[in-house]
Amino acid sequence: MARRSALPPVHDAAVLRARLDRAREAAAGTGLVIAPGSDLRYLIGQPGGSFERLTALVIPADGAPALVVPKLEAPGFDGLEELGVEVLTWVDGVDPYDLAAERLGGAERVAVSDFTPALHVFGIRDAVPKAEQVLAGPIVRELRMRKDAAEIAALRKAGAAIDRVHARVGEWLRPGRTEAEVGADIAAALVEEGHTEADFVIVGSGPNGASPHHALSDRVIETGDVVVVDIGGPVAEGYNSDSTRTYAVGNPRDADVAATYTVLQEAQQAAVDAVRPGATAESIDAAARDVITAAGFGDYFIHRTGHGIGLDVHEEPYIVAGNDLRLEEGMAFSIEPGIYQAGRWGARIEDIVVVTADGVESMNNQPHDLVVLI
């Protein structure tokens, strides 16, 4: 039974070969073992699937990389010879961890991708018992944080697609419907407007909007509700959208909504304006947080200002206090401050931005105003 479908490569062979070379250089003498997932897609253009049988890209400190893959899964990885990646197939009854160990040679240190199943982590450890085993995340994320032109183009495409969905929310968000009903319509529209699937749909109405990761419920939307709509998904190239807008179904019932929302707009804009090469990730968080705190809402902003985005919805860099990483051209992340008043209502504004040579470019262009649906 087929359990995954091959996806088109993200880039051409020359780009992927360069990524493999940079991964080896960044590893600095450490062997890499990359399991299926976004890291694998970044390096060879195909994500694969992780099951009880080992599939892993093995990049030795010296020598050619190889994909260790069950023979029955190998047809999904056509074209790897163009990347200089040898395909090492195995069948049931053969120990695939020995194949990986042979390619790693006498490595003294092996870095395993962060989301490798424990089954395979232990298998690699036992096959290379003398090697120190560490996470590959710190190595690979240094490559993935800086998006190239094709990746930024894919993020623009995703941003435009999610903007089109937000522009249509008034078609579905109205009194008498449940969050789940509205969410189902939004999920369908995500695909209609250019995503391959709906990765997540949050419709937080009234008091549910004060829970940042509320998803959907059977709560019936009422006139006067403030509603947080946070949605996203991948486009064909594998890169993701993620955008939040806040709506009101009729005039908000709470008298403080307009003034509070204005503070949120100012905070979100302050953070965007602070983005430039050389600024620290924590300074962008501070730019938003300082505005909200000065207005008396500091205790109601209960999460970081943003997260990186690309092949994963959440990846490096994280826009959070304590992260002194200096931003560089090509880094992409969300800016999404929120104010959440438990038991009452919440609001969030979220755009994806990319650091440019002299500032910032937003991937989202829907207005930031509170959208009042009459």
TrEMBL record:
Keyword Nucleus: no
Keyword Glycoprotein: no
MF GO annotations: aminopeptidase activity; metal ion binding
Domain Creatinase N-terminal: 19-145
CDD domains xrefs: APP-like (cd01092)
Keywords: Aminopeptidase, Hydrolase, Metal-binding, Protease
UniProt xrefs under Pfam families: Creatinase_N, Peptidase_M24
Positions of the Peptidase M24 domain: 154-357
Family: Belongs to the peptidase M24B family.
Entry protein name: Aminopeptidase P family protein
